[in-house]
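Example 103, ligand iron/sulfur cluster.
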Amino acid sequence: MKSCRREFIVRSAVGLVSSAFFPLVAHAAEELSETDPSAVALGYRVDATKVDKAKFPRYAAGQNCANCQFYQGSASSKTAACPLFTGKTVEGAGWCNGYARRG
Ligand code: SF4
């Protein structure tokens, strides 16, 4: 009887932790794909050196998401959110035509 009560308490605690944790996991941002229509429109590439320079002449060597003012992570973050692509993360080494040098 005592072990049944203990098991109930443990299962209840696990249930509470699960319901508190999984909504956060379910809303974790997914990484922006280069084939996403909004990414294609802005010429986003996960590797800035692969930008189509003929199509996006604003690109200059050395520019990437990590030194863009819209990048929501630190300069050393591998990925971070970008307000131009709501709900997605972009690569620090990436680039898109919305680039603006971090001040
Ligand atoms: Fe990267 Fe800046 Fe373009 Fe966002 S706006 S994808 S941080 S270059």
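Summary: The longest helix spans residues 2-26.
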